[in-house]
Design goal:
The radius of gyration is 15 Å and the shape is globular. With about 130 residues, it is an alpha+beta fold. About 30% of the residues are buried. A hairpin with a 7-residue loop joins strand 4 and strand 5. It has two helices and six strands. Helix 1 runs parallel beside helix 2. The protein has a single domain, classed as Ribosomal Protein S5, domain 2 (2-Layer Sandwich), CATH 3.30.230.
Length: about 130
């Protein structure tokens, strides 16, 4: 089963972050972009038992990042979170770029990404019931 892509957007403090999520069978493909759209990094995650507590679910990700890009941590965290919470494989591609982004601006972008991911996970959990 392949579901139609769902689009998400958040505008906060002058930064717009968008995402597109598509279910492919039991798995998810997510793209995240903002500022100048591009692909800076990609991560693939899969759920697994926690190494510290086998009763808890965790996830492991592999990350590919283009030279000079800094989206690697974003795609790793997002893919592992989605994989853990949705209990399935997830691929995330992201490109987030604003010229002369300040540390405060970068922190705001990360907060926006987290808000979007929370919304996406909630919608995917609701849709799978």
């Amino acid at each position: 089963m392949i579901q139609a892509p769902r689009f998400f957007r958040i505008d906060q403090d002058g930064f717009t972050v968008e995402a597109c999520c598509m279910r492919m069978g039991d798995d998810y493909l997510l793209s995240i972009w903002g500022g100048t759209p591009h692909i800076g990094a990609v991560a693939m995650a899969q759920p697994r038992d926690s190494l510290q507590d086998p009763a808890r679910r965790s996830a492991t990700a592999s990350v590919f990042c283009y030279v000079g890009h800094k989206e690697d941590q974003v795609v790793k965290e997002v893919s592992e979170r989605m994989s853990r919470e949705l209990n399935t494989k997830v691929v995330v591609a992201a490109g987030l770029h604003w010229d002369e982004l300040t540390p405060a601006g970068a922190a705001q972008v990360l907060r926006s990404v987290n808000v979007l991911i929370t919304e996406i996970i909630q919608q995917m959990l609701t849709a799978s019931k």
